[in-house]
Write a structure and sequence with these properties.
Belongs to the gluconeogenesis factor family. It comes from Gordonia amarae NBRC 15530. The chain is of the alpha/beta class. The chain has 2 domains: 6-144 and 183-325, 3-Layer(aba) Sandwich (Rossmann fold); 146-182, no CATH class. The protein has 13 helices and 10 strands. The strands form 2 sheets. The chain has a 7-stranded parallel β-sheet, with helices on both faces. It has a 3-stranded antiparallel β-sheet with strand order 5-4-6. Strand 1, helix 1 and strand 2 (29-33) form a beta-alpha-beta unit.
């Protein structure tokens, strides 16, 4: 069996972890990245330059550049140490107190190339070529998106929800997120991302900030349609623990229920969870039923870095390899 074509959907640190893991399996990895960040450097750039937020795109590119040691012998014509240096450079944030303070080098480079070429996809592809990256990074949409959420627990009556707008506001507002929407409501998909999903052998969604990095991928109608019609094997990787701000107090089962509530027609083949997050017994049986709503089978394994709520890339790669290779 040759190297599979893998598409990884997500954003932020969760997608970085997935991309690192998938690079153990293949050189043919395409990252499809959310573009709703409105905080920090990305927020400043989208406000000042009217560009899609570059931060999560930069992180995905850095993840693909930082190839695991197991792939060092696959590099053709590019020094791995040099690529690692440039991956670190893209992630480096300017110090000081001036206008550049807090901006990562990669954000400025990507925003500048996008302005010069008039196309963020062309800018990402140019950086890929410059640094000899095997995979590809694509935005979920070519326009900057906003997240709008219905949040309860902010009023004296817990049944009343308040509408909160903006990814940072949603992540930091006290209360419980009930539902999220994208603005504009029918955002244009990235054609290259749709084509990558159609050509994929394996599609991986998650882990990541559930309401701002995972669920948005099923809220772009054209992308959801591509996922539904793709013949690729689809894997949903659930977070190791609830995330403060977005999913406080959420069980693993609750993560699945809210995703299904946002896209009940979305189907996956496998739901992957860490064994420590779901004890054996009745709770795991409930989780199996929740996975079945997606038409999926549940797979439980040791996936975490010991003592941390972080996926171990090699462990995740090993489990996903088994799912892809099974008949």
């Amino acid at each position: 069996m040759g190297e599979p074509k893998i598409v990884a959907l997500g954003g932020g640190h969760g997608l970085y972890a997935t991309l690192t893991a998938m690079r153990y399996l293949t050189r043919h990895v395409t990252a499809v990245v959310t573009v709703a960040d409105d905080g920090g450097s990305s927020g400043r750039m989208r406000a000042e330059l009217d560009v899609i937020p570059p931060g999560d795109l930069r992180m995905a590119l850095a993840a693909l550049m930082s190839a695991p040691a197991a792939l060092a012998d696959r590099a053709e014509g590019h020094d791995r140490d040099k690529r690692t240096l440039w991956a670190d450079a893209l992630q480096h944030r300017f110090r000081g107190r001036g206008a550049l303070a807090g901006h990562p080098v990669g954000n400025l480079l990507l925003a500048g190339l996008s302005e010069l070429l008039g196309d963020p996809v062309a800018a990402l592809d140019e950086l890929r070529d410059i640094f000899g990256v095997d995979g590809r990074v694509l935005p979920m949409s070519l326009v900057p998106l906003d997240i709008e959420a219905d949040v309860s627990g902010l009023e004296s009556d817990p049944r009343i929800s308040r509408c909160i707008r903006g990814q940072v506001a949603v992540a930091t507002t006290p209360g419980k997120v009930r539902r999220v929407r994208l603005l504009p409501e029918d955002p244009p998909a990235c054609d290259e991302a749709i084509a990558a999903i159609g050509a994929a052998d394996l599609v991986v969604l998650g882990p990541g900030s559930w309401f701002s990095s995972v669920i948005p991928h099923v809220l772009v109608p054209k992308q959801l349609a591509a996922l539904r019609h793709s013949s690729a094997r689809k894997v949903l990787v659930v977070n190791l623990a609830p995330e403060s701000g977005e999913t406080p107090g959420f069980s693993v089962e609750r993560h699945l229920h809210v995703l299904h509530a946002h896209a009940d027609a979305f189907r996956v083949d496998h739901v992957v969870v860490d064994s420590a997050s779901v004890p054996a017994g009745r709770e795991r049986e409930y989780l199996e039923r929740a996975a079945a709503k997606f038409g999926a089978t549940l797979h439980v394994g040791d996936l975490a870095v010991p003592g941390r709520h972080v996926h171990d890339p090699e462990k995740l790669a090993h489990l996903v390899r088994g799912l892809y290779e099974e008949e």
